Amino acid sequence: SHADSPVILEILQNWVPRVSHYFDKEHYTYVGHQIVIQESIEHFGAVVWPGALALSQYLESNQEQFNLKDKKVLEIGAGTGLVSIVACILGAYVTATDLPEVLENLSYNISKNTQDMNMHTPEVRKLVWGEGLNEDFPVSTYHYDFILATDVVYHHAALDPLLATMAYFCKPGTVLLWANKFRFSTDYEFLEKLCNIFNTTILAEFPESNVKLLKATVREN
After folding, report:
1. Where in the chain are the domains?
2. Quick check: 14 pLDDT over 70?
3. What fold is seen in the domain 45-218?
4. Sorted alphabetically, which Gene3D superfamilies does this protein's record hold (predicted)?
């Protein structure tokens, strides 16, 4: 049905700062807040990728459909932290996770952008896909309403551990929102694997950026 077909969107130029006269891709505006992101050129995860812009924009525009207020949100592969910061502004209890070498820059961006706000204090934690999940995030203690992931699939070998991580955290009632730039056959292979495990819907496509935004929930028998 038409209702199930994805909306076609473009990523808006939200990073043009409204308060200063120079052009600087580190300034963003979402949900009425100016967000300043420090990027790091040493690490893959420390640059703002298009999927992060797409998901931030979508969360901002669809607050009724995906109401994050007081919800528990886990971001995997949080990178610079933009999506986690937006989720935080939208009122969520956020846990932003990534590889150890990315955490310093991630923590800096998240604390800098959320410290003076009246909102739940976000948490930053190490999470290596597929490793030590039972120890670090035991099922008995941790249940998330939303799992957020952006541009976690690119030309690399960690796709099976990534899928295992998504499956681990996606319990009945959890919504996984994954936005990704589709460049390689591996991206489509991962999508196919995701569809085999979860109920999957394409919520939005951003054709100019080759970004797809997907919603996945666990299959309940």
Report:
1. 45-218
2. no
3. Rossmann fold (3.40.50)
4. Vaccinia Virus protein VP39
The Cα angle at residue 203 between residues 3 and 172, in degrees rounded to 5: 100
Whether the CB-CB separation of 152 and 76 falls below 8 Å is answered with yes
Condensed to tens digits (0 to 9), the pLDDT of residues 177-211 reads: 999 999 888 899 999 999 999 999 999 999 999 99
- Pairwise CA distance, residues 6 & 203, whole Å: 5
Q: How far is the C-alpha of 101 from the C-alpha of 157, rounded, in Å?
A: 18
| CA torsion through residues 148, 102, 211, 92, sign | positive
CA distance 120 to 27: 23
The pair of three-digit structure tokens given for residue 187, joined into one six-digit string: 């991206």
Beta strands of the chain (E only): which ranges?
7-8, 27-30, 33-36, 72-76, 93-98, 123-126, 146-150, 175-181, 198-206, 211-218
Surface-to-core class of residue 111, CB atoms within 10 Å of its CB (0-12 exposed, 13-18 middle, 19+ buried) = middle
pLDDT confidence of 164, banded at 50, 70, 90?
Answer: very high
Q: Are 34 and 15 in contact (CB under 8 A)?
A: no
Task: Give the Cα separation of 28 and 6 in Å (integer).
Answer: 25
Task: Give the separation between CA 186 and CA 156, rounded to whole angstroms.
Answer: 8
Q: How many CA atoms lie within 13 A of 12 on its CB side?
A: 11
pLDDT at 5: 84
